[in-house]
Amino acid sequence: MPDLVFSHSHEEEVTYFADLILPLPIPNLFTYRVPRTMVEVIKIGARVIVPFGKKDGRVLTAIVARLHNTPPPRYQARYILELLDDYPLITSYQLELFRWMADYYMCCIGEVMNVALPSGLKISSQSKVQYNPDFDYPELLSPEEVTLLEELKKHPALTYEELGRLVGELNVPTVIKALVGKRAVIVFEEVREKYVPKMIRKVRLGAAYEDREALLDLIRKLDKSPKQQEVVMRYLRHVPVLLNSALNSRGLDKTVLNQDDEISQSSMTTLIKNGIFETFEVIQPRFSDNLAPTVEIRLTEAQQQASEAIMAKFNTQNIVLLHGITGSGKTEVYINLIQQALESGSQVLYLLPEIALTTQIVVRLQRVFGDKMGIYHSKFSDNERVEVWKGVVSGQYQFVVGVRSAVFLPFDNLGLIIVDEEHETSYKQHDPAPRYHARDVAMMLAQWQQAKVLLGSATPSLESYYQAQQGRYGLVELFQRFGDATLPQITLVDTKVEKKQKTMKNEFTSALLTALGDNLERKEQSILFQNRRGYSPYMQCEDCDWTAECPNCDVSLTYHMKVGELRCHYCGYKEEVPRTCPVCGSTKVKTIGFGTEKLEDQLQILFPEARILRMDLDTTRAKNAYQQIIEEFEQGNVDMLVGTQMITKGLDFDKVSLVGIFDADRIIHFPEFRATERAFQMLTQVSGRAGRRGGRQGRVLIQTSNPQQLILQKIITNDYRGLYDEEIRERQDFNYPPFSRLIKLTVRHPEQHISKQAAERLAAELTDTLGSSRVLGPEQPLVERIRNQFLYDILIKIERGPVNMKAVKEFIRDRINDVLTDKGLRQVSIVVDVDCL
Ligand code: ADP
Ligand code: ZN
Ligand code: ZN
């Protein structure tokens, strides 16, 4: 056998194969054949189009991960259909990153690719139908077929959808199938790239008139048609071709010349017809604001010291944690470091949590970096994301500020990565896979590209602070607010006492009401924080105790008054508010508890003259709603802002001198091992919005039924270190992170007993080898059922140290496969969350 092959191959060229990443949740790469015409040009990291699956015509966009000449042992390789890039769209660093992520986060590399690439770089394929010009047996056709065919004759080609719209009630797929059988139509796949660059139409003088004499001659001749002459003169005012003929080639935006009047439009048409003007199109970059840098930052002495300390640490350490209190001007320190990195010629990535990015920070950065800075945000349109991607490749953007998915951009020369607000949980992707943590991914990226990482926070995660204590990260502190501002004074208000004295009005203590009134009088702004949206979280019948519950999930429905709906915050289910109890018919249906909507409502009644805005998920759904609220507040058109944790993140307002916090107890007593850390972070961050400018000290009032709680004492004294010492001991005692690594497996199935059975079996198999101290559960989570799926959690805790995590993960993966290949359990789904939060 080998001889046979050999005797062929010295005449024929070697057959090339490519291992491809397909955008599917499948564990393996797929091998395809490279057509001879592509062999010379195909590169690792380029996109290709390949057929996939049994059905003809289904195509996928894939990425070339490996080129070689070994045929796949178990299947006949199919040919690559098309090569989309003649350069690697995905850098080798990115490929390495994809592989690492799939391994580390226990998912498929195709899933990583799906999340990594903006969909504009993926390809969509759509079936199109076309009239077959060779068809000439019309007598064979049914009336429906004739109708369809007549439509098709009028158009070059149509999609099924377009056809459906044209022919109304006809069953398009069936009729087409019949027509295909009769060879009356041709069906083909049209592949198109979804990224559409924005084009602008421009005009310029015909090449003949770039010559000075010819142009002057033309102007003289146009004396007879003054309107046309006016248009030419208008052009010359914008593009002085007589002074510099080379300017003509760049032309002028057509809309500038038309100036909306019809006269110039018709003159224009004539000028174009006569060859005096010619039109052409160019791609318009989407971010051509022509922003020039306008400010220079002068660091304060404390900031300068911090900046120098960070640079010094970078000499010996790759990761530095900047612990800087709220309002200390961490952003200014970052800017300084970014400038240094850019000057040295390397790229910079600045990560921010989603919501913080929409705001003021971007404006501040733009004033410094102008249009050298790319912005990568998930609210951006896909085309905009593609443009940032391409800008990084082309070198236009050496510096990108972005949300967690910006770690996927094609950097190849990073010098510095900043992770601002590094404690933020929104850096962890929840759904879908890969369930990655952008901070941790950033560190891997940095390691490969020899970049430095700066983590920054006023309330560092225990994990990061612990690493700093162990000497694995450098630690730099900045404990001074900018200007003459000081940290706000935090007061605990006892709601139990006020309730007894009957001094509360609705949810407001008299202490908070007085403070709010004072602030209103002084025309200073107040922020009110309640981490729950909607009007109230429960609706209940006083007579029979019925409560409104979601039919799909195991939770109560939240009452939203303005829209008159009950809504599920887990699955989005909504229904109209019942006027009477659906069980007993009683009219005494009451609401229990309060959310931001109710607070806003009550506040307006208490302070009728106050201008109040609310900021939560419900008021910020529209594209620019968030910015609008911030602008209104910034311009002083608002006295009080009520909001959820959205208002805790990075906002920087001058005139906020009071922050009121509701329901602190609920935040503190959340049943989760990180609750104390979270509460400290959340309450400290929201407090930090007060008193950010000098002048009078800001004030924070926290309403609680138990002011003695240790954590509240730590918050009012801003005692991060005390909190850390306390917490880290507990983490150690119970072997929680940072002393262990967590992997959470969630088993889901619409039937509870199946879900339970699968979870119990999985847990048993895991426990057999890992031991019962490392495997907790299965346990039903707080919300047992979401979207009609019953959930069971298994928590795997692996101590840090000499454990081969790779082997552990492989073992877990095998056990999951065992369960999933069991006949009775095949429909179960199991979600793996590595380093779950
Ligand atoms: P942090 O992120 O540490 O909470 P910021 O970076 O938002 O603090 O800074 C707080 C405020 O102080 C911002 O409005 C910022 O513009 C201002 N600020 C801080 N440092 C300086 C500086 N060196 N020069 C001018 N303004 C500064
Ligand atoms: Zn009832
Ligand atoms: Zn629901």
Query: Looking at the structure, what is the overall shape?
Result: globular
Query: In this structure, how is the largest beta sheet organized?
Result: 7 strands, parallel
Count, helices: 27
- Which parts are unreliable, with pLDDT below 50 for 5 consecutive residues or more? 1-11
Number of β-strand runs: 34
- Percent helix: 25-40%
**CATH-level-4 superfamily name of the largest domain:** P-loop containing nucleotide triphosphate hydrolases
Mean pLDDT: 88
Rg, Å, rounded: 32 Å
In angstroms, what separates the terminal alpha carbons? 56 Å
The CATH topology of the largest domain comes to Rossmann fold
> What's the CATH architecture of the largest domain?
3-Layer(aba) Sandwich
CATH top-level class of the largest domain: Alpha Beta
> Structural class of the secondary elements?
alpha/beta
Bound molecules: adenosine-5'-diphosphate, zinc ion
- Strands of the biggest beta sheet: in what spatial order? 14-15-13-16-17-12-18
| Proportion of residues in extended strands | 15-25%
Number of domains: 7
Protein model, in words:
It contains 27 helices and 34 strands. 34% of the residues lie in helices and 22% in strands. Residues 1-11 have low confidence and may be disordered. It has seven domains: 16-122, PriA, 3(prime) DNA-binding domain (GIY-YIG endonuclease, 3-Layer(aba) Sandwich), CATH 3.40.1440; 125-193, Winged helix-like DNA-binding domain superfamily/Winged helix DNA-binding domain (Arc Repressor Mutant, subunit A, Orthogonal Bundle), CATH 1.10.10.10; 199-283, no CATH class; 301-478, Rossmann fold (3-Layer(aba) Sandwich); 489-531 and 606-729, Rossmann fold, CATH 3.40.50.300; 536-593, no CATH class; 740-834, Ribosomal protein S10 (Alpha-Beta Plaits, 2-Layer Sandwich), CATH 3.30.70.600. The structure holds adenosine-5'-diphosphate (ADP) and zinc ion (2 copies). Residues 550, 552-553, 568, 570-571, 573 line the site of one zinc ion.
